Amino acid sequence: MKLLVTGGAGYVGSVCAAHLLGAGHEVVVLDDLSTGHRDAVPTGATFVEGELGAAAGDVLAGGRFDGVLHFAARSLVGESVEKPERYWDGNVVASFRLLEAIREHAVPRLVFSSTAATYGEPDQVPIAETAATRPTNPYGASKLAIDHMMTSYANAHGLAATSLRYFNVAGAHLGDGHRLGERHAVETHLIPLVLQVAAGTRESISIFGDDWPTPDGTCVRDYIHVDDLADAHLLALEHATAGRHDIYNLGSGHGFSVLEVVETCRRVTGHPIPAVVAPRRAGDPAVLVAAGDRAAEQLGWKPSRTEIERIVSDAWEFTRHR
Ligand code: UFG
């Protein structure tokens, strides 16, 4: 297939682009490099530097595309609370322009990076796709708004639409000559922050609260290897059906606490990694774990890199040899 990958210079987008190329697809990456890196665009992809809302139409006009994988987004929860306008514009308005370009150029498929943040504080864990969507911040609300737009375009215009709701993406893609991992200018995610301590670029890790209603008092999250996540995108492309909007949670179904992650990083790196208990971070739910049955049953997706050691070792390999 000929595919447009928006945000293909970012962490998840670049890894998915590498998997798509590996599977024999033709890939055009569109990225404004506001948070992505030119050197993360995998070899073999055509790169177009441009802002999503403005450039998507021109790119799609340039050839018959079979699908779009849409990763380009602003994704800092804290920033979204302080500067919501960036999220309504950069996520919702830009995605609307993309959807309009998709309609105009009759692109049949769209696979979208949605998020567990669309659910907010869950009533029940593990979280199924049928759970109520009550995002607790503008980031999650902006992604949910895009999900709603996609449903309406599937119904009205026959788009084959898929939203993949990621839980905690981690690890790195190390195969096929590419080394692709997380390197955000503003890093907020637990595993890369802990590994910065091991690499000597940060003194200690703050543990945001040790009095949560969890077995060891720290928050529990469902960490999913970025290569497993990429596999799901390929399956989603294959299973996309005209006139339907399908939503799938992507997680491993296993939760690990912040302390378990820090302990794993100590084992993997051999570094003592000093940890300091800090106040809870606003908006953090205690436990987020995916019910992955729908993706397993309907897409045939089975994550295979679910060991936390494997996820951390791959992230560490990437951090050390960058
Ligand atoms: N944490 C710490 N110290 C840190 C950083 C994180 O204790 O320095 C904790 C957090 O409080 C949380 C866990 O580690 O309990 C994981 O935090 P991350 O920031 O790595 O990930 P989140 O669970 O907050 O975020 C993920 C996605 C978001 C998405 C969110 C849904 O990365 O995009 O889930 O709630 F919005």
Automatic annotation (TrEMBL):
InterPro entries: Epimerase_deHydtase (IPR001509), NAD(P)-bd_dom_sf (IPR036291), Sc_DH/Rdtase_CS (IPR020904), UDP_G4E (IPR005886). Pathway: Carbohydrate metabolism; galactose metabolism. It catalyses: UDP-alpha-D-glucose = UDP-alpha-D-galactose. CDD domains: UDP_G4E_1_SDR_e. One of its GO terms (molecular function) is UDP-glucose 4-epimerase activity. The keyword Phosphoprotein does not apply. Its EC number is 5.1.3.2. It comes from the Bacteria. One of its GO terms (biological process) is galactose catabolic process via UDP-galactose, Leloir pathway. It is an enzyme of class 5 (isomerase). Pfam families: Epimerase. Its cofactor is NAD(+). Residues 4-251 form the NAD-dependent epimerase/dehydratase domain. Keywords: Carbohydrate metabolism, Isomerase, NAD. Belongs to the NAD(P)-dependent epimerase/dehydratase family. This is UDP-glucose 4-epimerase. It comes from Pseudonocardia autotrophica. The gene is galE_3.
